[in-house]
Amino acid sequence: MTITKSFFFALTALSAAFPAGAADLLETYHAAQAQDAVFAAARATHQAGQEKLPQGRSLLLPSVSLSANSTYNDNNIQYRGTTFFPSGTSRFNSNGYGVNLTQPLFRQQSWLAYTEAGLQVAQADAQFNGAEQDLILRVAQAYFDVLIAQDSVQLAAAQKTAISEQLEQARRNFEVGTATITDTYEAQARYDLVDAQEIAAQSNLEVKKRTLQQLTNAMPGDLRQLGRQFKLEALQPADMDQWVEEAQRHNSQLAVAQAAAELAEKEVARNRGGHYPTLDLVANYSENSAGGGSLGIGNDSRNAAVGVQLNLPLFQGGATRSRVREAEANRDRAREELETARRNVALQTRQAYLGVVNGIAQVKALQQALTSSESLLEASKLGQEVGVRTNLDVLNAQQQLYSTRRDLYQAEYNYLISQLKLKAAAGTLIEDDLARVNQALY
Fold first, then answer.
1. What pTM value is reported for the model?
2. Domains, the chain, with CATH or none
């Protein structure tokens, strides 16, 4: 049985192990959307960020408060030098309530805080958008990590079968005197090595499955693999600078940094507003009743008032100036962080672009290398039969074939991941992009 046939039977067994009901990439992503703790925390953070706007708006709206009291009084009064006012002890209850309304008319700091709230909501939206894209990448990476780990186990098993056949052939040839014991030792050593590799591959597969389980909160079962639908697609547009420009407009990390820089600028103006006067419309209404008093006479009272209230800060110990200087320093920091984010996004986009372009070239090269390795193995086996190649040559050809095949699988997965990373860097990665990758699975 040739190595090609051995590999064919291994793939047939693998296909039987993955029925039509196996989970695909999109289903795994939907499970992670509902179960991933990191994404759930990002969702809660986004919901909390949406409350910044009503909180900021509340600073410009009227505030109304109600107060009420009920007091028991025990007074003892002794007047000196007069007999007109009676002295003695009086015990009585006094009750009252009041309603107070304050409507800001001019508060520079409150208005700027309201405009900051809009930026904070935009920042929360950008952060959540980034979390959604990050979840797509984490799910795709974990999914394909499981696939390459499964491929490694299957390839190790297939290689083990092929080497075992070579070992048996070496033993037979030694028994009939057509080969030396060295051929048997070589095949046995290679068999023991691939046996150890298979154990390591199985352990790695378990680790990768646990990593995927962390995202979906369920141990993954059968997963769909790359099928005939897989194909290499040239980038559109095929211009790195255009992708960088797209990233500068839509990248989530950059949007967060941009909002932070604008917030820092607003903070400078808001703290400077601490020097400005405030003007409020105030109104209050109260009613009070007392069952007695210092003269022994009870009373009922009602009061209503409407007016404006001006407050002009004159000196606060230098705190306002200090807060302005602090805000200016934070503004400068935010500007530098924004510039750093721009540069990082440009670099990440270029790296992702090259990852796709080089991935296409690498897959094509490995496809050709696989064809060459298969031809080399067949030629080495034929050469061994006619005596111009040794058993070691065949074993080396087998090793090269399986290494090339594994490298090809890894390159295909990396190519698909690089496509998603490029979309994420450009800030345009959505579920539809994952669905297109999912079409390559069977």
1. 0.85
2. 3-60+107-276+325-438 (1.20.1600.10), 66-106+278-311 (no CATH)
